[in-house]
Amino acid sequence: MKKDLAGRSCQEEDSSTRPKCPPTESRRCWASLHDLQAEHTVQALVASALSQLMTRAADHRQSGQLDRAASDYRLA
After folding, report:
1. Domain limits of the chain?
2. How far, CA to CA in Å, does 73 sit from each of 1, 50, 55?
3. So what's the pLDDT on residue 50?
4. Are 7 and 21 in contact (CB under 8 A)?
5. Integer Cα distance of 72 and 49 in angstroms
6. Model confidence band, residue 68 (pLDDT cutoffs 50, 70, 90)
7. In 3D, which of 18, 25, 23, 21 has the Cα closest to residue 10?
8. Closest to 29 (Cα-Cα) out of 49, 1, 58, 64
9. Structure pTM?
10. What is the C-alpha to C-alpha distance for residues 24 and 41, in angstroms, rounded to an integer?
11. pLDDT tens digit string along 29-42?
């Protein structure tokens, strides 16, 4: 038996790598997978935005724009 990303047991289909969940669990299995993928995407976007904000804040601080730097740090 294979396990989905949420740890539930699923049977693997014959010609596919996609696990086949029991009919009553199917929606929950794939909803959990979708939730994990969405969470990963959001985390990646936040990490990217945070990096950009910190870089922008440092640039503003170095150029003497302290009010803008403070605003960027607060956003981060």
Report:
1. 2-75
2. 49, 9, 10
3. 93
4. no
5. 11
6. very high
7. 21
8. 1
9. 0.50
10. 28
11. 777 878 888 899 99
The CA distance from 61 to 53, in Å, is 12
* Buried b or exposed e, range 24-40, using 16+ CB within 10 angstroms: eeeeebbebbeeeeeee
**Cβ neighbours around 71 below 10 Å, total:** 15
Strands (E), the chain: 2-3, 9-12, 19-20
Residue-wise pLDDT for 3-57, tens only, equals 656 666 655 554 455 556 556 666 677 778 788 888 999 999 999 999 999 999 9
Eight-class DSSP state of 25? T
CB-based contact 20:13 (threshold 8 Å): yes
